[in-house]
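Q: Is it fine to ask for two folds in a single conversation?
A: Yes, each is treated on its own. Send the first.
Q: Here.
A: Result:
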Amino acid sequence: MSKIRFFGLGGLGENGKNMFVCEVNDELFVLDAGLKYPSFDLYGVDTVIPDITYLIEHQKRIKGLFITHGHEDHLGAAVEVIKRLNVPVYGTNFTISILEDMLQTENLKASDFSLHRVSEKDVLNYRKVNVHFYNVSHSIPETVNIAIQTEDGAIVYAPDFTFDVNSDPRYQTSFTKLFDIAKEGVLALCAESLGTTNIDRTTRDEAMKHAISDVFQTSKRVIFSTFSSDLDRIQKIINIGITNHRRIAIIGRKAQKIVNIAMNLGYLKIPADKLVNLKFIDDTHKNDEADLCVIVTGTRHEPFYMLQRMARGQDRLITINSKDSVVIVTPPVPGTERMAAKTIDILYKSNAKVVEIKKEMLKSTHADHDELKMLYHILNPKYIVPIIGEYRHQYLHKNVALEAGYPENRIILLENGEVATFEAGHYKASKDKVQVGDVLIDGSIVGDINEIVLKDREQMSEDGIVVISIMLNPERKKLLSTPSVVSKGLIISESLEIVIDKLETITQDIVEAYLKRRYYDASLLKRELQEQIGKELYHLTKKNPIIMSAIVEVAS
């Protein structure tokens, strides 16, 4: 009999940052290491990853980091994790190839880490645990789900999947392996919840394919916006384009490494005579031939940003004009709605024909309520643990399980850090919690960007910044030139020049008065300037910008 603990360091009550831990007795298995993108109020923060303090404290018990697929919300934090934890990493060939590229981008050598390529044919054996993999349908190739087989049954980790039987065979779910796992018995199914909100969403891409075919038949140059992670959808656009005798150009192939890796490994296939490498626009190259199919790739806001540049004539490869058709295959993700709407407006101003492929027309890449019930039927798990998604998604998943006949005491809703404990094959309610939290990444800096820093950034975004420059001789206690005051982002109703002139006069008075004191201390002078100039600025403008002072000390 085993004691099993399952909990999330991220991915519960939120969209992204997926990272889960399954402990079987004294062996610890880490499942995925994802990031999420910050909310609008996290000024200057690029990404958010899980707090792995618990893993660092229990590093010796970790048997490995097991990655299900190459999307950022499951793989994006892996480099930071393995830089701090010397543990083996397991993933499919495509997933590990993406991770190797991520390491190279960080100027790290893949050979310095323990990276292992696995497939659904592999079984990893530990003391009293076997780890199995099975292929599932998703928008990126070589996606797997994981079964951790214990003495009391399997813990099945099913984060992102669908049962699309019409997809490319390389993307299809392995039902045979699923049934094999079911034969051994399943203690708990930890399955995704994101697709529970899919109401009236199509299960096939036929509507999208029909709309794209119609555009090709009635248009000259066609430009598509796509998310670089939707490789299956990109391949379908390529196939339809070739059927309509189009040459294919992919914008952002090198920048979007996942697309480049997919092409190198044969997961995106374009006949050599149909692939075009566009040259920069000049007097001889306009890149506006009528047989071109241009695919613009990126993540989150990037496709919208690139289309805006093209519509404004700022791009070096494509200038959108009235002869073009632009097909939007990128329904806005949370946080990009305003940019998406602005992009559509700008495209219409260019007089191009704009075709929006609505979200309802696109096949979902996450399991809906019917697919979840089908997975229940195949695996017949003793317990259901809804994971992946905001709390509303998990709650809807609970309702799906109730509809499928599971009693409420067999459905376990968790928040990050809460632990589901199973002893001798039975769930034991407990108040156990592990440390969780967000680690904020600001550019290349990883760590605790505290509330003071974020508050300063918020203040700067709203009221701007004022920089005061002073040159003085500390020995002679003499101001050597008129103080300079410069502002950025300070928007006021009255003349800014008048305010700056007043501030320079006030600054000079403050400095000259301070230099008459017996002792000179630069830090005290800076503090006095910040306090008094701040008060004066608020009096003049009703604004609270960040005040920074630079004192240049010149010796006699």
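Q: Second one now.
A: Result:
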Amino acid sequence: MRTRSIALVFALTAACSGAQRASTTPAFTWRPRSGPAMEQLLNVHRASAPTVSPDGRSVAFLSDPSGLPQPWALTVGADPVAESAWRRLVTDPERVQFVRYAPDGRWLFMGRDHGGDENTQLLRAPASGGAATDLTAAPEVKHLFGALSHDGRWVAYASNARSRGDFDVYVRPAGDEPSAPRRVLEGAGHHEVIDFSLDGRQLAVLHERSNFDQDVLVVDVAAATARNLTPHPTEGDVRYTSPRFTRDGRSLFVVSDRGREHMNLALLDLAAPPPALPRFVLDEAHDLDLLELSPDGATLAAVYNLDGWSQLRLYDVTDPAHPRERARPDVPPGVIASLSFAGDGHSLVFDLSRAASPEEVFGLDVATNRVSRLTRSDHAGIDESALVEPTLERVRSFDGTEVSLLLYRPRDLAPGERAPVVVQVHGGPEAQFTPYFSPVIQYLVGHGYIVAAPNVRGSTGYGKRFAHLDDVALREDSVRDLAAVNRWLRARPDVAADRIAVMGGSYGGYMVLAALTLDPELWAAGCDIVGIANFRTFLERTALYRRALREAEYGSLANDGELLDRISPIHRVDRIRAPLFVIHGANDPRVPVTEAEQIVAALRQRNHRVEYLRFENEGHGVSRRENRIRAYGDVVRFFDEVLGGARAQTPPTH
């Protein structure tokens, strides 16, 4: 899964006057524009995460007309179906995280949490309509939906019911037969179910030690025993994702980077004694981000990552060892986040987002290769031709490493005009900023800001070596990449060099705080959204099931305490010069709200300008539309006050 940057939303109308800079630099001539209002951009509805009925006639998906993602459905026709003709499947006061058709078409499965706490509960509702049944009913437990058997009789999932730090695997009837879930895999660590074998006797399960290190297990459902196919105790990190049983049941398709830079398609022989070495059947100089196998096992859909843009390909895999690419579908350039085949394999549905076009659901006829748009969401009257697509730029960092970034420029910057800049940092760090639709970016650019979205070292999508360049003791090298981006921006003739802000969420929030403390002279403002201020307290208080995964990236409490203290911005808070805006949700299980409150208290004690918004009904991010209106409206007002007004120019330090 890709991790997307938190969207910022709201309308702002405050005018900001220009001012004459000091004689050492050109005049600051920025003027606010009148692009689409943020409230209008916020009210753009989107359709995503589709699932298609076995007969291909109906598609269910998530959309947010109510202000939170909820499940909707439509009947596939010759033309896109307008939002007014969609069918709402469930009305829920909380966000719904996914929706999935059962293979027999009887049921829809969904997941939801409460107030952003990420303790997902699994729901089942009749596909024909009706109330949803809570299958798990354990609000203190996190459940990871896994797979449905091909005959529709069984559902498999993982949960931390036994131990809050470990995820075991369970199987239960998918229908309404009275039966308790049966635990088929118990063990330490993070397990996630991916697929049932065609006969329903086996499960493909991932055992995840970190975001860059996994093993593939095969679980015998009846015997409740497991085999680890890919032990690699001396090889270091090896990634395995997306295991899918081939239709002959002899192998598993997997996506892996074993012995190579990029994630590619391989086969694991189920009869081979462990370790089963992956036999690569596709080899590309790009990461394979998404994989889906048709229910009949004949067609494989793959989404490749080309500098953040998605490329959809279809392969005939009737001979799994020799995939043959079909004619490549003509899909508009953008970002694909999910795929779903119909039961007969004749059609595929997927969502597609572009920087200047919100997510919609599309369909692909596998036989004819015809791509058609299936949904027409309410886009609040936005003229998409007025929105901006980014350009791909590249920056050399302090050690020569190349960092890519997406640059969004106002359309009407006049010659000699210098604009303020917001640098948007993604979370993760094992993630990538991609050219998806972001209301805040489109508002800022329409309002006259330049937005730069870099993929610093540690980002995915650029190979294994690049992703590991920020590990543990190398953590702050990624912050040095941000400084290199800042200096590159300062050298541009369209940038107001003393008016560059940095904004990010989650790990991106840490990057904001780290940038303000390591290079305080470079940044004019910061916005930290659900970010880490103190790695020691973060690891002590994050949800127990996440600690081991995060320690693999940042360092452990037991062995790396000195390092964790050294890289924690809270211990350099006296170096911060720039005004700061902080946002956090009280129910955040990933980065506890105490991280925000530490940095806010430390800055207030120093009488430093810091603004803070805490939301009692949010978790790791801001999901509810009314909260986003308030939060990000204030953020843009803050940026306008700090970056857009007249103030004395100091010559760039570097």
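Q: Anything structural to flag on that second result?
A: Two points. The longest helix spans residues 625-644. Residues 1 and 337 are 7 Å apart (CA to CA).
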